[in-house]
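Instructor's aside before we start: the two examples that follow are unrelated to each other. I chose them only because their records fit on one page, so don't look for a connection. First example below.
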Amino acid sequence: MSIAGGRQPRVAVVGATGTVGGQLADLIGEREFPFAELKMFASEAGSSETIENEGQRYPVAQFSAPSDLANFDIAFLAIPEEKALELIEEHPGPILIDLSAASRAPGHAPIVAPGVVTREHVQKLKANKVFAVPNPAAQVIATILTATGTESGFAGATYLAGASTMGRERVTDLFNQSADLLNARLDIEDGSIQTAFNLFIPEVGPKLADAIVAQTAALLGGRAKLAVQVVQVPAFHGSAVTLSLSGTESIVREWTGRLRAAPGVLLIEGDDPAGFVDAIGQEAVIVRMRPGSGGAVIWAVFDSARMAAFAALWIAESLWFSFS
């Protein structure tokens, strides 16, 4: 990796104390992302005062206004969607990599991801100044369809979302309900949903499913024909996608080889159950494929926060550095 812009970038992480922001801070150190300056911003008052990154401690400043970003080259927006969109509207100066785009259909900002879009293509889009990181489920589906060569066929998918994908409040709710249920004191108020030991379609499920379909299509150049269902599962962290593909026996055998060689995919071919916990901390998606008479069913588990953070950093690498 060499510097394409002539100097190392000045980098800001807005929302560095959140789940995705924290993963992003870790990855910047782990991948030895070169920078001239790294600034951590908290979007909420009362957050931790410092963040550790590869032995270095960085002070966390309170983000107060778009002008805080004026002197930076790249800013990662790991903040809620409403705040991110307000900040983007202000055009504060740096290239903005928006991690809040997971629950909405693609807009004016290019939506790109590793394993589906090339670094060269991202370089060509640099003038846009804003890039959207897709929902990890859309990235996983697009990655698998690309690897198997089935981008233009029809596929049915179910996104099994852990509580953390719905925000910290849902994680707390699941914890409290689980404890109450195990102690035989769970009392669900009218209008509330039992999250503990239950699978259900969340209120945001249909809208999120539509966004995942649209994002997958955008990643694949409009070729995807896809139906998606979103189901929340009683797991604190981790997510999964089940994907049904049709094909002949010989084509399914070919898919195995393609998945084995695909970037960002860890194909499990033994008896490993490949559960949610196996994906925690992984940038790759863990995949198992079960052949059937009319095609195959694919089971894919992944760490949503880690995958989103990795995609965001990959965009920054692609924009600022040369890999030739």
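Example two begins here.
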Amino acid sequence: MSGTDRIRAGAAVAVAAALALALAGCGLGAGSAPIGVSLLVTQGFGARTVTATSKPKIVGADTVMRMLERNARVATAFGGGFVSRIDGVAGAGTSDWFYYVNGVQAPKGAAETRLHNGDHVWWDRHDWRAAESIPAVVGAFPEPFMDGYNGKHLPLRIECTGHARSTCNAVQSVFAGYDLVASEGCLLCSTANQTLRVVVGPYDTLKADPGATLLARAPSASGVYARFEDGGRRLALLDAAGATVRTAGAGAGLIAAIRWMGQPPAWYVTGTDAAGVAAAVRAFDAPTLDDHFAIAVLGDVAIPLPDGER
């Protein structure tokens, strides 16, 4: 086995929960096919589309793997351990295929993950050097708020900090446009962890939130290619290798999703100050978020993260 193969094999073990186990690639048998399912295949953290369909071929109780095989040319590697090639695009070096259902990295292999109504299935080939696991992304919006994930619908809660009430109301209005009802409250006021949380406020007001603290650390901890610095007064935008491309101060915003200790994903609409939060709120819509893992907002310009991928 070559050195490159050894590296890729080691990575496959490290991220086995996120990669597609295609041991058999079989569906779960007869049953009604789920409706409203979509399939997206991209490269480079969503930067380049390989294939996309809002009406993929599905038969009975298909798994994610069987749906992929019905709608794309698929090859596997390492004894069928994970997907190595989709429609001619192969993993190589430190880049491999990962998949998400409704914006959440799946905890099981694709051959074991069954489809549910409304599932947005997203395969992306990207560099895992800086983050072997990216547990949640924002680019499937309005999922997972619309249809949940793993077949479960969870209550939606918007948590406001500081003087973010008006911006919270603006986020509430976005969800209302999808006929989604959200409760509003203060940070961590609810003891229930089976909710989908959207946290709105300047980063320096979020430090009591354990998930938010990850946004001051490297992508290997947060899964987000940005990092708050100087107590939240500065936002560093990172490339796929985790290196800083640029740093922004006042007025910088961020929209990102975090999973803390296996809890449901929490979304953070935050920034270096109140102006940065307001900029992030203005970017909080499907056209801006679509197909992006996270976005920074500088001067009302949305920048997909990692920086420099587009």
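The chain has a mean pLDDT of 88.
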